[in-house]
Specification:
single chain, 657 residues, 5-stranded antiparallel beta sheet, disordered C terminus
Length: 657
């Protein structure tokens, strides 16, 4: 099951990564063209829908009111239609019952024979003549309110015994009797006693011209003629008037419904506009306030909730303007104070430096204690000058006075200058600095002075805390980003230290004094320089496995970063080495299984290696994370012998940068 899931996951990953929409994939260009054509008109509409609350409220009101009007319309039409049909059925049944009674009374009345030829009359001729007269007489009372149809007993496909007396169908008003009376109704009338009704259509013969069929209510009953033979009598009541009334009601409801929907939308638009307009005004004023125009205020009219909101907004803007003015004044005072202090401190510091240099040069004539004091004085003055310079730089960042002088530079030249400056310290520590990725130009728009300061800080820290091992400086560029990573193999960083290593005056062991000569502000200034470029300065480390600091800068100024061309976790970390060992063991086991003989015997002299105990899973590469992206990998429980170090060494030198 697991391989199946992996294959499904890879297909899903390929789909999400867009590999199925490449030019080589079938239908890829066509699908992309269709998506592009679809997005062109849809995106503006979606953007307008998301940004315009008034449009959303009006659209919601339109949909809800339309649904309500449709529901009410259906209910009203159904009720009116049912009422019209019920009234029509009641009137039709009453009128048809009277007609059936009249027809049966005429059939039951005694026959009278007049004239000398009365004895020669035939029964069929008398019934036929009587039937024609009956249909005309019954239809004459309707005056187009109904039509009368007389049919012989039977359903049309058969003739019942004893029904030969009534031959042929009779109908009034050019009605087609066979087509107007449904077969189902004729079967019901012929097989059961009583009155039956159904809805049908009145169809006319060619003698009526081009008269269209009309909906009608058909009522029928089985009767007997003057000879006692059965026949079927039907009343056809047209529903034209009811249909016209129903259509008029439908048109009225639709017109009134549309008017109500439009009226509700207009009311919603007006009501929402009264609320949205002040909100839009407040949003515009807030944007202008954020742009620095602190004198902007809302126009307040009335005493309602919107007016109270406007007054509160104006009061907030006024207080904000006052606070910002106070902060600006404080910032100006701070900058003036820093400038004055730096000026005042530089003069006595210069004097003290000159005197200290004289004393330091003459230390050979002093006794050992005084000579050592002269050396300590010179060293601490150097540190004091560095601390003063760093404090001035930090104050510029805090005051927002730091300016970026970006120009296209080749980071390889900056790295070479940094390495040349760090070579004396590296020789003293017994460290070799190696550079990788410098075969191709690494061009970026950056401030060369600030980038050199950041890299000098990283390289010097790596040399100081690398315990004499190699320091690797890696350069790379990809997409819209360039990166420089400095890797050392010293004591590394303990869990949680990578998130604090950029704090000002931070030390790995607070109980220890600062003896490396640093000011404690180097990485703080470096991360501010990286942010000034719109880049990242990120840290990674593991106890006893060294650390890596990565500087990522955009290739062009003001270009947002989406990733880094160098992974934050190096390839030779413990987790990556453990994974590589596990993969190699799996490959060796697979190769050994492929080389086994057919009988299944294991002839391999060395069993496959298992995964390294305590190895950590390889986490996702945090190259796309904003901020400093600091991350620490905890030290596994079991380490190789060459990686073991004492806790005293780790605590004593753990990156007090």
């Amino acid at each position: 099951m697991q391989p199946g899931r992996d294959r499904g996951g890879s297909r899903w990953g390929a789909l999400r990564g867009g590999r199925l929409l490449q030019d080589g994939a079938p239908g890829g260009p066509v699908l992309r063209l269709f998506v592009r054509l679809l997005r062109r008109p849809v995106l503006p509409a979606v953007r307008l829908w998301r940004r315009n609350i008034q449009l959303r409220v009006v659209a919601a009101t339109l949909l809800i009111s339309l649904a309500v009007v449709l529901a009410l319309g259906f209910v009203i039409i159904a009720q009116v239609s049912k009422g019209l049909l019920d009234a029509k059925e009641e009137a039709a049944q009453s009128q048809a019952a009277g007609g059936f009674a009249v027809a049966q009374e005429k059939a039951n009345a005694p026959a009278t024979v007049d004239g000398p030829d009365a004895a020669d009359n035939k029964v069929g001729l008398d019934a036929s003549t009587w039937m024609n007269s009956l249909v005309k007489q019954l239809a004459s009372g309707g005056q187009t309110a109904f039509e009368v149809v007389a049919l012989g007993a039977g359903t049309g496909d058969q003739v019942l015994p004893g029904t030969e007396g009534v031959k042929g169908a009779r109908a009034s008003g050019n009605v087609d009797p066979a087509a107007s009376v449904p077969i189902a109704l004729r079967r019901a009338v012929n097989h059961s006693a009583g009155t039956f009704k159904t809805f049908s259509e009145i169809r006319y013969t060619a003698g009526a011209g081009e008269k269209a069929p009309e909906p009608a209510l058909v009522v029928g009953k089985r009767l007997t003629d003057i000879n006692g033979d059965p026949y079927d009598l039907y009343y056809l009541f047209p529903l034209t008037q009811e249909e016209e009334s129903l259509n008029l009601i439908k048109v009225t409801i639709v017109t009134a419904g549309l008017f109500v929907v439009v009226l509700l939308c207009g009311i919603a638009w007006l009501v929402v506009r009264q609320v949205v307009t002040p909100v839009r005004m407040a949003a515009g004023i807030a944007e202008r306030l954020s742009a620095g125009r602190l004198q902007e205020r809302m126009k307040v009219t009335g005493e309602d909730d919107i007016a109270r909101l406007g007054e509160a907004f104006n009061k907030m803007a006024q207080n904000l303007q006052l606070k910002i003015q106070q902060l600006e004044e404080l910032s100006r005072m701070q900058r003036r104070f820093v400038s004055d202090v730096s000026h005042e401190l530089r003069t006595p510091l210069t004097t003290v430096r000159m005197a200290a240099d004289v004393i330091h040069d003459a230390r050979v004539d002093f006794d050992p204690v005084t000579a050592r004091s002269a050396e300590l004085l010179a060293g601490q003055l150097d540190r004091f000058e560095s601390l003063l310079a760093d404090l001035l730089e930090i104050s510029r960042f805090d005051a927002g006075a730091a300016a970026l002088e970006a120009e296209p530079i080749d980071l390889r030249d900056v790295v070479r200058r940094v390495i040349d400056g760090a070579e004396p310290l590296a020789e003293h520590k017994g460290t070799r600095i190696r550079v990788l990725g410098d075969t191709q130009p690494v061009i970026a728009e950056a401030d060369a002075r600030r980038v050199e300061r950041v890299l000098r800080n990283l390289v010097v820290n790596a040399v100081e805390h690398g315990e004499g091992r190699d320091v690797v400086v890696r350069l790379a560029s990809a997409g819209g980003a360039v990166a420089v990573a400095v890797r050392d193999y010293g004591v590394g960083l303990k869990p949680g230290e990578a998130t604090r290593v950029f704090n000002r005056f931070w030390r790995a062991d607070p109980a220890r004094a600062r003896t490396t000569g640093g000011t404690g502000l180097g990485l703080s200034i470096a991360v501010e320089d990286a942010r000034l470029h719109g880049g990242w300065l990120q840290a990674w480390g593991e106890p006893g496995g060294g650390s890596q600091f990565r500087l990522t800068l955009p290739r062009t100024a003001d270009e947002p970063l989406r990733g880094s061309p160098i992974p934050l976790e190096p390839e030779d970390s413990r987790a990556n080495r453990a994974r590589a060992a596990a993969d190699a063991a799996a490959d060796a086991a697979s190769s050994a299984a492929d080389r086994q003989p057919a009988d299944g015997g294991d002839r391999s002299p060395i069993p496959p290696r298992s995964a390294v105990a305590g190895a950590l899973p390889v986490p996702a590469d945090p190259t796309a994370l904003p901020g400093n992206g600091a991350r620490v990998v905890a030290r596994p429980a079991e380490q190789a012998p060459q990686e073991d170090r004492t806790d005293a060494d780790a605590d004593g030198d753990a990156h007090g940068r």
